[in-house]
Design a protein that fits this description.
This protein has 486 residues and is mainly beta. 10% of the residues lie in helices and 27% in strands. The protein is built from eight helices and 31 strands. The strands form four sheets. Strands 2-3-6-9-12-15-18-21-24-28 form a ten-stranded parallel beta sheet. A nine-stranded parallel beta sheet has the order 4-7-10-13-16-19-22-25-29. Strands 5-8-11-14-17-20-23-26-27 form a nine-stranded mixed beta sheet. The longest helix has 8 residues. The chain is globular and about 75 Å long. The termini are far apart.
């Protein structure tokens, strides 16, 4: 006797089936954006001053002001002094490693693809410097949207980059007063990952109509982040801005803060697995460890596996931070939840002193806008943004709402990916035959019976196009990543 069970699960995270307010058809076919969803910044008065900032500007006015160096993959040479556009270095890594670049210096990087020392596929920033991509080849103009400075490894780098992040931020000599700035880069793992072939007619491939690849083959793709801190904890101040972090199969950003104010703003995160951003504290006490996460566009964060049982977050609140401000972001199409808020510090005094502010963010088509642990059971609580005021541990909660259905953003998102996500399905096929030769033998020797299970998805982690990710800058006035301004 053979028993086969087939289930089709249309995920409730799409088109308002979960929240009952968002109409996908209306959104996709609507006219271009309107900025009338913004609320007065006075709504943020309850929380920190950074949460009341409605423009995509830094809450930290400090910048590195040391010697300016230049790097150009097309025309530079590692035998140059790097001090002018005409004597630019060729490799970012060689320039950072040089004896003459010091903490506080600035490295301007021209458009091109930079793959580290001898094209190994990663770059390690070991000094408190500003590394700024987005410069024209002659360094006369800065525009990271137009002059694309990339770290985009290919299959050739699989044997040389191992589990290294595309950017590892790990100063050799920790300095609590040091400042590192990463600005204007496109970090893309989409050409290195393994994907199923694109074939919408073959359900095994997980290809939504019009996507350039099938689903991510997570069990075969290399496992590393867009940005992390290597194997050490980062001490000092950190700013990450005006970047695109995409198609990362093991976090967009995952780091540990060992003391300092960090700011992650005006970035586009798209199609990253596990989570777009996860920052934890690394000291015994969280005093002085703060994070300002604002004006980011966070889309298509994917679960750990195609079974979609866990992970898949836009932003994660983690233990060990004194204060975290999450404001003026756009969270959309995050596979498990826009915001994960499930971790509690075992030290009750530390937990009680935490400050978490979530204000003036826009949400759409997430499985949940915030995920919380259930008090009396094993299930997670899937919370909508209009319920944030009832989350006790959140201090500031004003101004969160659904993305306007006429937002220009919905036209700029890659349409095959958006439509595929809106109709995402999981198909599970389980087969068990107690009379099979294998199970008859296992029964005779007292072993457990076995069966087979096949899970097929209509979409999972499909590669997102770079051009469509870049177009998201400035899509919604006042929210998400704005057009970069020098």
């Amino acid at each position: 006797m053979k028993k086969t069970l087939t289930t089709l699960l249309s995920l409730v995270l799409f088109t308002g089936l979960c929240f009952g307010q968002f109409s996908f058809n209306r959104a996709v076919n609507a006219a271009s954006s309107a900025a009338n969803s913004a609320k007065s910044a006075a709504n943020s008065a309850k929380s920190s001053s950074s949460s009341s900032n409605s423009s995509a500007k830094s809450s930290n006015s400090k910048e590195n002001k040391g010697t300016v160096y230049y790097c150009n993959a097309a025309t530079g040479s590692n035998r140059n002094d790097g001090k002018s556009a005409s004597t630019a270095f060729k490799e970012i890594q060689k320039l950072i490693n040089s004896d003459f670049v010091k903490d506080g210096d600035i490295i301007r990087v021209a458009e091109g693809n930079y793959l580290g020392y001898m094209n190994q596929g990663f770059i390690e920033v070991t000094k408190y410097v500003t590394v700024q991509g987005g410069w024209s080849s002659d360094f006369s103009s800065w525009d990271p949207v137009k002059y694309q400075t990339m770290i985009q490894p290919t299959a050739e780098q699989k044997g040389t980059n191992g589990s290294k992040a595309l950017l590892s931020l790990k100063p050799t000599t920790p300095n609590q007063n040091g400042l590192m700035i990463i600005d204007g880069f496109i970090l893309d793992m989409g050409m290195e990952n393994d994907y199923m072939r694109a074939d919408p007619k073959d359900e095994r491939t997980g290809t939504c109509e019009g996507c350039e690849t099938g689903r991510l083959m997570d069990e075969q793709s290399p496992s590393h982040c867009g940005i992390n801190g290597g194997y050490s904890n980062f001490s000092g101040k950190l700013i990450i801005r005006n970047c695109v972090i995409m198609n990362c199969n093991n976090y967009g950003i995952q780091m540990a803060n060992n003391g300092g104010h960090w700011e992650i703003y005006n970035n586009v995160f798209v199609a990253n697995r596990y989570a777009a951003c996860e920052i934890r504290g690394a000291k015994a006490t969280p005093d002085g460890i703060t994070l300002d996460f604002h004006h980011n566009t966070v889309l298509f964060s994917w679960c750990r596996t195609k079974v979609m049982e866990d992970m898949g977050y836009g932003f994660r609140f983690m233990n060990g931070l004194q204060q975290e401000d999450v404001h003026h972001n756009i969270f959309g199409c995050n596979n498990y939840g826009a915001i994960d808020n499930c971790r509690y510090d075992s030290n009750k005094a530390v937990e009680a002193a935490k400050i978490q502010n979530v204000e003036n963010n826009l949400f759409f088509m997430n499985n949940a806008d915030m995920v919380l642990p259930a008090v009396g059971g094993g299930k997670w609580l899937m919370v909508k943004n209009d319920q944030f005021e009832d989350v006790d541990r959140i201090k500031g909660y004003e101004g969160n709402k659904d993305l306007p259905t006429n937002s220009k953003l919905l036209k700029l998102i890659n349409q095959p990916q958006l439509k595929g996500y809106a109709n995402l399905k999981i198909k599970s096929n389980t087969s068990y035959d107690p009379n099979s030769a294998q199970n008859q033998f296992r029964s005779a020797i007292g072993a457990n019976q076995v069966g087979t299970e096949t899970v097929r998805v209509s979409m999972y982690g499909n590669r997102y196009p770079v051009a469509d990710a870049i177009s998201l800058f400035g899509a919604e006035p006042g929210y998400g990543a704005q057009t970069p301004v020098k």
